[in-house]
Amino acid sequence: MPILFSLALWADIGCDEPAYKLAQFLERILWFNNENFCLGIPLTICMSGQTLEALARVHPTIINTLNWRTTNSNSYLSGPWRWEQAELVGSTFHATALVQPSALHNNNQLHQAFTEGFVRPEIQQCKDSFKRLLGRNLRGFRPSEMVWCPNVSWLLEEQNFDYCIIGGEHFGSHQTGQWHKGQVFTLGSNVPNLKIISTTNEIMPSDWNTYPHGGDVVKAVMNYARKNNTGRVLLSYDIDPFVSDEGFEKIKEMYLHCLECGREQIQMVNTGALVDSANEKNINSGLFQPVINLLSFYREIGIQFVWEFISSNTNALGNLDFIDWERAQDAYHFIRVHNEKFTSGKANGYKLEEAKKMLVINLRNCLV
After folding, report:
1. Is pLDDT of 103 > 80?
2. Dihedral (C-alpha) 123, 125, 126, 129: value to the nearest 10 degrees?
3. pLDDT, tens digit, 9 for 90 and up, residues 264-323
4. Per-residue DSSP letters for 101-159?
């Protein structure tokens, strides 16, 4: 079985200096070996809307590069070729979490108010930035801090996302959990079109001590896939450690080592390719497994309230120990007051919107 390996890096940068460094890094990734007709390194670049806006502001030419050198449904490339281009994946505009834990667990009405009043506009604003600057719709979604809950999956499907990346920490490191980290999931008939794919958290590409070279990462990926009899491995990390020359060289080594091993063993692709591998044509080829129901797997590993379960890459047990509950409660009370004023018709819309912007920016502080 050939192994499909994807590296998805997360960027949330709003200020100019780091945005300029990020733009330079992306230029190197996307134009790598162009003189030999290479499509660049097929990195998956996950970013908030404010990151794309910052890139356009400080390095306008990067927009043309992103347009030409990343996979797009309108591209002339089709089929497997599309797998070998870099891919852009969106998030919320200010990297706001998809879920407010206090609202989800204490008040369904306020959970809906948070979803409609905060999360939906944040997603739409991010989508609008990509549409305005790049003229395209986003296919993939990556939540900030990997904070995700099946309860909000309907919104991602409604916003026409094809798939969502989640952290695999809560799957466990036992053999069953590791095998499932190589699968593509669905949420059943309630959310029929959105696919879910998890990261393989056992391999940390940013760990220079364990994996000093890109080839070491690829060898670990191959060993992991063979041990767990899976054809898909998705690694993810913050982009910051890789923006340096040393970081770029490590990613380049990953890509070149995959080429040296050959397609029959491993192929470095974008994350969308992992999702595509679960379609009927590829399943029938016998190379990859079909989609699996995520909620059934959750029940199998002992999760009781599957629709309300909140996962995060900072909390493998899913017990919400990563939450700063004092700050979360402050946010909860603001949402409650905002909602009461709005529903009673006593709201000053302008003041509420300005206050909401400040809360959106500070909501990430709830995550320890």
Report:
1. no
2. 160
3. 899 999 999 999 988 756 555 555 678 899 999 999 999 988 998 988 877 666 666 666
4. HHHHHH-HHHHHHHIIIIIHHHHHHHHHHHHHHH-----EE--GGG-B-GGGHHHHHHT
236 burial via Cβ count (<10 Å: 0-12, 13-18, 19+): buried
Residue 88 three-state SS: strand
pLDDT at 3 over 70: yes
Amino acid at 157: E
Q: Please tell me the distance from the alpha carbon of residue 313 to that of residue 328, in angstroms, as a whole number.
A: 18
| Chain CA centroid to CA 121, Å | 18
Mean pLDDT of the chain: 84
User: Cα-flanking dihedrals φ and ψ of residue 265, to 5°?
Assistant: -105, -50
Phi-psi region of 43 (alpha: psi -120 to 50; beta: other; left: phi over 0): beta
CB under 8 A, 24+ apart: contacts of 239-247: 239/9, 239/10, 239/11, 239/22, 239/25, 239/45, 241/206, 242/9, 242/25, 242/206, 243/18, 243/21, 243/22, 243/25, 247/25
DSSP string, 265-312: TEEE--HHHHHHTTSHHHHHTTSS---EEHHHHHHHTT-SSGGG--BB
> Which of 161, 344, 185 is closest to 278 using CA atoms?
185
Total-model pTM: 0.87
Report DSSP state, residue 243. Answer: S
Nearest to 251 by CA among 220, 218, 226: 218
Radius of gyration of the chain from Cα atoms? Answer: 20
* Order of strands across the sheet that contains 163-166: 140-141, 163-166, 195-198, 184-186, 292-293
pLDDT higher than threshold 90 for residue 25: yes
Reduced to 3 states (helix: H, G, I; strand: E, B; else coil), residue 198 is strand
Residue 331 has pLDDT above 70, yes or no: no
Amino acid at 266: I
Q: What are 185-237's pLDDT values in tens digits? A: 999 998 999 999 999 999 999 999 999 999 999 999 999 999 999 999 999 99
Phi, psi of 7 (to 5 degrees): -120, 115
